[in-house]
Amino acid sequence: MFFDIMHGKKYSMATTWKIDPAHSEISFKVNHLMITTVTGYFRVFEGQIVTEGDDFSTASSIQFSADVGSIDTNHEERDIHLRSEEFFDAKRFSKLTFVGTRYDALSKNATLQGNLTLKGVSRPISLDVEFAGEVKDPYGQHKAGFIISGKISRREFGLTWDAVTETGIPVVSDDVRLQANVQVIKQV
User: Fold this and answer.
1) pLDDT in tens, 11-37
2) Tens digits of per-residue pLDDT, 42-57?
3) What is the rounded distance in angstroms from the CA atom of residue 56 to the CA atom of residue 123?
4) pTM
5) In principle, which of 46, 105, 141, 183 could form an S-S bond with 110, CB 3.0–4.6 Å?
6) CATH number assigned to the domain covering 12-186
């Protein structure tokens, strides 16, 4: 907070926090054949939060994007299929984005509302946020951690590829569970 001597007004200082990709993980989980779960990651991503001072409950801007081409499920053939037109169409839609619209903090937990854009389709989603804490690292950087989770319908975002077994069991579920372990660094 600073005080404008000329006009006698108090103003809050905006603080920008950027995601530390070396200490963060963006993942998703999808049921395969309704008997196991496949986990995937986006390896290239960025994002930032703008707060008043160091108080995350005052977040006025939350933005995130991931490079769809960086999808990694630990299986190259599947990753190629996911990047194809049948799924993410990474050549035409190279980024997925999230822009927060509302952040409701209740002590350590919060709800984050926002718009997710995936494959050219934008839809509102709700995410659960757990504040993991704040610390200064050995290099003097002020960091904070969050665990973020939610669920979306892949079909609502145009990811409509479907296949079924001969007994009618879906190969891939419609529900996609989102999970992010995010560490942010206060920008000086």
Assistant:
1) 568 999 999 999 999 999 999 988 899
2) 999 999 999 998 899 9
3) 24
4) 0.89
5) 105
6) 2.40.128.110
